[in-house]
Amino acid sequence: MSGPVSTKIEDRIAVIEINNPPVNAASHAVREGLISAVLDADANADVDAIVIYGAGNTFIAGADIKEFGQPPKAPHLPQLIDEMEAVSKPTVAALHGTALGGGLETALGSHYRIALATARFGLPEVHLGLLPGAGGTQRLPRVIPVAKAAQMMTSGTMIGAQEALQLGLIDEIAEGDDIRSAGFAYAQKLVADGAGVRPTSARAPMPVAEGELDAVRAKVAKAARGLIAPLKIMDAIEAALTLPFDEGQQKERALFMELMADEQRSAMIHAFFADRQVGKVPELKTGTPRDIRKIGVVGGGTMGAGIATSALLAGLDVTLAERDDEAAAKALETVSGHLSGAVKRGKLKQEKHDAIIGGKFRTTTDYADFADVDLVIEAVFESMEVKKDVFGKLDMICKPGAILASNTSYLNIDEIAAMTQRPEDVIGLHFFSPAHVMRLLEVVVGKKTSDDVVASGFALAKKMRKIAVRSGVCDGFIGNRILNTYATAINGAVLAGASPYDVDRAMEEFGLAMGLFRVADLAGLDIGWANRKRMAPDRDPREQYAEFADKICELGRYGRKTGRGFYIHGADGSETPDPEVLDIIAAERAAKGITPREISDTEIIDRYMAAMVNESAKVVGEGIALRPLDVDITLLNGYGFPRWRGGPLHYADTVGLDKILNDIKIFQKEDDFFWQPAPLLEKLAAEGGKFADLNG
Q1: Is 125 a catalytic residue?
Q2: Which domains does the chain show, CATH number per domain?
Q3: Tens of pLDDT along 535-561?
Q4: Active site residue 105
Q5: Degrees (nearest 5) of the Cα angle 30, 31, 37?
Q6: Distance (Å, rounded) from C-alpha 111 to C-alpha 351?
Q7: What is the pTM of this model?
Q8: How far is CA 208 from CA 141, 150, 221, 584, in A?
Q9: Which of 84, 333, 474, 683 sits in a 20 to 30 Å window from 166, CA-based?
Q10: Which residues 6+ apart lie within 8 Å of 618 measured at CB?
Q11: Catalytically annotated residue among 17, 105, 238, 378
Q12: For 376-426, how does the pLDDT look when each residue is reduced to its tens digit (9 = 90+)?
């Protein structure tokens, strides 16, 4: 049989191989080949059992993304799985790598499942705004406990082979690493034992205690935070528990089609593809990544320790420099704590932790220890003078070809690079805090940064499992520049009459995990204050500058770390609004002659989004971001913008650029200096265009 599916009959066992690299996606050709192979094997009198396995590194790892947005072609996956389940001979799914989405649904359509110990399983459709639509919501609750089935489908998280065995998702864990041989031997054993077919659809759903489903649904609803797919999944699970299998499948299909037509699905598909497109930058076509094995980190504070941890988890050798022995010891303790936490969470094995601490990581107080590193990342205080001093010293010590990177959040990379004799080797690598957790990395490209160094930045991000976004040089780059703008707009809403607590509530109802002022308290108000003081000499006198955050900082209240900021923070983690903050704001309004008015949640969000979209359009129009999708990925992965809204510029396309522009013109009446429409936004709105048109 030609194509990505082939069959070999050995000892009366039909072994069906799926070979559709790189991830054996369930493409049309795979579905067509698999249904034909299974039916042929079932009809063959010389076959007693069937084994299905994936060639290469994995079983079916999901749908074929090339088919997203294309008209579906028969045989559809639900039909394939129903046909597989209905064959008259015992069928074994032999699993390794990952069985995800349609891959796991295919495995559930087999009668038996065996897996390598390293295999992982999941139904991640919720991340695309969908539910498992090929019987997954109906079969999984017939195999594993309902609460776990709900958790897997509504969160999209994967489980390992040991847990899958304990739950009943798989029947055996194979010894060794040859999944084909393991599947073949298991099928032989089933035949020898006289085992028959075991359709999952014929099983009764797993028992559910009274009130259990309602409790699970309530928990899912609380975690969903605006997402509709998790709640639709719960509806499908309820159908699995209360309806005959065929009727449950019909309900699943109806719910799936509802989600397919919803804007959330469109937004999340946009984010899915943008994640993959964002790494395609011009420099990667001409630049060759340098070999980076040893790195240096300057500064062992929150950011430096996080960067060091991220590098160590990626297998890199790390030397961290601090100003004195006491600070170096504290940095060692912080990094060790991060690594111990990774062990506790199962992200790092104890023996690897011990190897890192024993040989891959060291601290120093002497920059001379950076003489043989391939890359140094500076993560010191956000001061141009301090950073210039560091780079001047590094330039003298580091070997030729070593990359010098700054973790600056705002400062001009070109000005920093000018302190060296190798500006082509200088780049910005702006990590987000906590650096060992957050996935976003802004790769800031200076005027003289070489293509090889840019390619090296993207390669490092991949090694660290981060999403890299290319940014040009400007104050704040992509993310913080946009943040500063929408923060100014939100401060304007507060001066006009909203409270910080109104703002946070509205933003959280919009879909953010935390509102702007809660985030500021968490990050530390002193960070933003230092930046505002840096920019004060160049502040335009026409700007309506909100002073209340500065006044709070002047009282020594920097947020959670000091116990007070915009909120009062309890030792138990509680947050309560601070009445003194409202007094500070009221005093500023009075001093500025502002009569406060009622500000609705809708107006708060309109201001937030208009400012964000407008500044994003400027960032794209000026070439700081290559494409609108680069802005979307930055805000989605670094600033908590809800993924189910697709990013600010996808959101703008969805609500209409005319609406965004009209909102700006309304707010312009209040503050003509701040609310200036971006030329790109005006151009697209006039032409009836969309930001998506510029993504290429």
Answers
A1: yes
A2: 5-263 (3.90.226.10), 294-471 (3.40.50.720), 479-694 (1.10.1040.50)
A3: 899 899 999 999 999 999 999 999 999
A4: yes
A5: 85
A6: 38
A7: 0.92
A8: 10, 12, 19, 54
A9: 84
A10: 678, 679, 680
A11: 105
A12: 999 998 899 999 999 999 999 999 999 999 999 999 999 999 999 999 999
